[in-house]
Write a structure and sequence with these properties.
This protein is an alpha+beta fold. 33% of the residues lie in helices and 22% in strands. The chain has 3 domains: 2-198 and 324-410, Rossmann fold (3-Layer(aba) Sandwich); 202-298, no CATH class; 425-453.
Length: 453
């Protein structure tokens, strides 16, 4: 489970911002997780709202970037290429400010706190703590270019592993690559326990869905993805996957090219299509059973199918799924249904979590299958003087009940709504009027000439 995520100086998140998934109070009707050796519980779903360009997507992107750094810094980053970060850019000395990220999570019944700070060239600090008896304990700390300091409880070849450390690689990444059992398990949590779904990785998500579909068929058991597929009621009765023919040399070259670009830009690049499979959707109608190419389906159907793999992975293994713009190209009802799967204790026995950004305010209402409480709603707002994003929870506001959260949000009760510039509106009206007058003036000579002729 993810308990908390903290970030400073990433994209529009200039100052330190923190997202907490700790519940304000227990609620038996939702699939809450227990924080070991404490009275705290975690919420199964967390929504982030805000106007366009307010920075809500940057919260998900910061989580994705931390995950990318943990998985890639040792094996994939250029040893002399520095740190591919994205600091806040709206200040003259942006290179002088460190980027810092930290995640607090539960793995195998133990609470961990891991984070690091960096500049453009190197990792400036890195730390890992655990709470085996409810109190914080150091596993390792790293500062500057010196060797990490280790706690007594961190056993193994930790000092020898430190000899392989580069200025721009994380010790956690190095230790995992060298087979350290505990640190490898923590890296594995970032890999499989923290799942990120954005438009940039749709093809990868679709491939993941296909692989799960094929795996379930190979094991000759009921397809576990079909209930999720049919839940959407988009008219799709199944999925047909055909092997695609492609030259091995071409496939290898394209895979190397894809890896190069993704390493260069931190994974934020889109590769559409697959050389391995052709995906078709199966429809059962009165006249028979027919297969359509996936590209012939609506964008909403494609989005839903692409989400099946990550959703199933999260629910099946108790992972944390982070989704940017969950409601993009999906009907509001489907967005609500998807989130409600995580809320349901029976569907979500492993206490998986979903963190998502959205514009659809109906998820705050009471007329859907979803009921989000105040401790599950966060907002982003941008300071127009500085361009910096602030992240804050709905629970900061004193509200007696949540019966009309949607209406209160839309009227600006909590902020985080678009600012409508009346002066700009008036200027637009004046410009349109002037453009029309100029057009009419330009037409008059031609009209007069035609009449004379």
């Amino acid at each position: 489970m993810l308990l908390r995520f903290r970030v400073a100086n990433h994209a529009s998140l200039r100052d330190e911002q923190e997202l907490s998934l700790i519940a304000d109070k227990p609620r038996a009707e939702r699939a809450e997780g227990e924080v070991p050796r404490s009275a705290y519980r975690t919420v199964p779903a967390t929504a982030i709202y805000g106007p366009n360009a307010s920075g809500k997507s940057n919260v998900i992107d910061a989580i994705a970037w931390m995950r990318f750094a943990v998985l890639s810094s040792f094996r994939q980053w250029d040893p002399s290429g520095g740190v591919p970060r994205a600091p806040f850019g709206l200040r003259p000395d942006k290179a002088a400010h460190l980027t810092e990220v930290e995640a607090e999570f539960v793995l195998q019944g133990v609470r961990y706190q891991y984070g690091f700070a960096c500049d453009d060239e190197r990792i400036t600090s890195e730390w890992l703590y655990d709470y085996p008896q409810g109190r914080i304990r150091r596993l390792f700390e790293r500062s500057g270019d010196g060797s990490p300091k280790f706690g007594r409880s961190l056993t193994g070849r930790v000092k020898m592993i430190g000899d392989l450390l580069r200025p721009n690689s994380l010790y956690l990444s190095v230790a995992a690559a060298q087979g350290h059992r505990l640190l490898g398990a923590i890296r594995h949590w970032f890999d499989r326990g923290l799942i990120v779904a954005t438009d940039f990785d749709f093809s990868a998500r679709l491939d993941d869905t296909i692989e799960r579909y094929l795996a379930s068929n190979r094991r000759e058991r009921a397809d576990l993805l079909l209930p999720l597929l049919r839940l959407a009621d988009v008219g799709v009765a199944g999925v047909q996957v055909d092997e695609a023919e492609a030259d091995d040399g071409l496939r290898s070259a394209l895979e190397r090219m894809q890896q190069f670009f993704q390493e260069s830009v931190g994974g934020r690049i889109v590769f559409q299509g697959s050389l391995s499979h052709r995906v078709k959707t199966v429809h059962e109608v009165e006249s028979g059973r027919y297969a359509l190419a996936l590209r012939e389906e609506s964008s909403g159907t494609q989005t839903w199918i692409g989400m099946l793999g990550p959703v199933f992975e999260a629910l099946a293994h108790g992972a944390t799924l982070c989704v940017d713009e969950l409601d993009a190209r999906l009907h509001p009802y489907l967005s609500a249904v998807l989130v409600s799967l995580f809320q349901d204790p029976e569907v979500n026995p492993h206490r998986a979590q979903i963190v998502f950004t959205a514009h659809d305010t109906s998820l705050l209402g009471r007329n859907t299958t979803l009921k989000l409480e105040r401790d599950q709603v966060w907002f982003t707002e941008k300071d127009h003087r500085t361009g910096a994003t602030t992240l804050f929870p709905l629970s900061d506001f004193q509200e007696r009940d949540s019966a009309s959260l949607e209406k209160r949000y839309l009227v600006g009760r909590f902020g985080a709504v678009p600012f409508l510039d009346d002066d700009a509106r008036a200027a637009l009206a004046a410009a349109i009027k002037q453009h029309r007058n100029l057009g009419e003036a330009a037409e008059e000579p031609r009209s007069g000439a035609t009449a004379t002729a």
